[in-house]
Amino acid sequence: MDNSRQQLKKQVKKHIPKDWLCELRIAYRIVKEAVNDIKRTGIVNLVIITTMAAILTIFGVLFRFTLSLSTFANELGNVLEISVYLKPNTSTEIVKDRIKEIKHVKQITLKTKEESWNSLKQELGLHDVANPLPDTLRVSVDKPENIGEVFSQIKPISGVEDMGYAKDLAKKMQVLTKVVNTSMIFVIIISGALTITIINNTIQLVIQSRKEEIEIMRLMGVSNWYIKTPLIMQGAFYGFVSSIIAVLPLNWVQGLLLNVHKFFLIPNPIFAQNIVIITLLIIGSTFGAIGSFLSIKKHLQV
C-alpha cells in the first residue's frame, strides 16, 4: 500500500509544472532557517568553531609538512645512484642495454676508468701509478623504494664485477616516508572522528530545542528534506568557518618551509599551499555535514 502511494506521488509530481519562484522562496527559507539555528546555538558556536579549528589546524600543518617531505624524498631519490663496477674488457654498451631493460631504471651514465683515475690523481697527488679503477655505470632509479629491486636485478648481469649504493640512506628515507604517511592517515581519522562527534552533539541540542516546532511541521505535512537541510547546512557552516580559521597559521608554516627549501636548494612543491587550503575547506565542510546527517538520522525520526 505504501509503495503504491509513493509511486502515485512520483507520477503526480512529474506532471506538476515547476514554479522557479516558489523554488527560490523555499531555498531562501531553508537558508534562513539554518541561520536562525546558528543564532539559537549562541555562544556555543564559538566553542564549536574554535575546537574544530584547532583540530583542522593540526591536520593542515601536518599535511603541508608531508608535501614538503615528499619533495625532499623525491630529490634525494634522484641523487641516490647505484654504482655498477664493470670487469676489465667488458663492453659498456652491452651492459647498459641490459640494464635499460630493467623496470624502474631512470637514467644510466658512464664514467670511464680514465675519468675516475684523473680525478683521483688530482685529489691525492698520485703520479706514475697504473690505473687500478674499473669503468663505472651510475644507475638512477625512478623512486627510492625501488632501488633494492633494481640492485638485485643488475647484480647477476654478465660483466658486472661489483656494485654499491647508499643503502642506509635509502632505508632511512623509506622509513621516514612510511612514518609520515601513517601519521597522516591517523590524523585524518582522529580529525574526522572528533569533528563528527562535536557536530553530532551540537545538532542533537538543536533538535531537542526545536522538538515541538519540528513535530508541528511534520503534522503540517512539511517534507523531510525541508526539515533536514537547515541542520546539515549548519554542520557544514561550522566546518567551513573552522577551515578558514585553520588556514591562518598555515601562512607562518608556509614561510618557514620556503626558507628551508631555499637553504637546501630544493624546489618548493607546486601549489602546495593552495592544495592544503582547498583540502581543509573540503574536509571541514564534508565532516561537518556528515556529523549533522548522522545526528539527524539518530535523533530525528523523519
3D architecture notes:
It is built from ten helices and four strands; from the N terminus they run αααβαβαβαβαααα. The protein is elongated, with a radius of gyration of 31 Å. It has 302 residues and is α+β, with helices and mostly antiparallel strands. The mean pLDDT is 78. α2 crosses α9 (224-263), α7 runs antiparallel to α9 and α7 (167-209) crosses α10. The chain has helices spanning 2-15, 20-41, 44-79, 92-100, 113-124, 147-154, 167-209, 211-219, 224-263, 272-299; strands at 81-86, 105-111, 136-141, 160-164. Strands 2-3-1-4 form a four-stranded antiparallel sheet.
What is the gist of this entry?
With 302 residues, the chain is of the alpha+beta class. It has helices at residues 2-15, 20-41, 44-79, 92-100, 113-124, 147-154, 167-209, 211-219, 224-263, 272-299; strands at 81-86, 105-111, 136-141, 160-164. It is elongated, with a radius of gyration of 31 Å.
Radius of gyration: 31 Å
User: What is the straight-line distance between the termini?
Assistant: 20 Å
Detail the poorly predicted runs. Answer: none
Number of helices: 10
Major sheet: order of its strands? 2-3-1-4
Main β-sheet description:
4 strands, antiparallel
Number of strands: 4
Jot down its keywords.
4-stranded antiparallel beta sheet; 302 residues; elongated; alpha+beta
Task: Write the topology of this structure.
Blueprint: H1 2-15, H2 20-41, H3 44-79, E1 81-86, H4 92-100, E2 105-111, H5 113-124, E3 136-141, H6 147-154, E4 160-164, H7 167-209, H8 211-219, H9 224-263, H10 272-299
Antiparallel strand pairs: 1-3, 1-4, 2-3
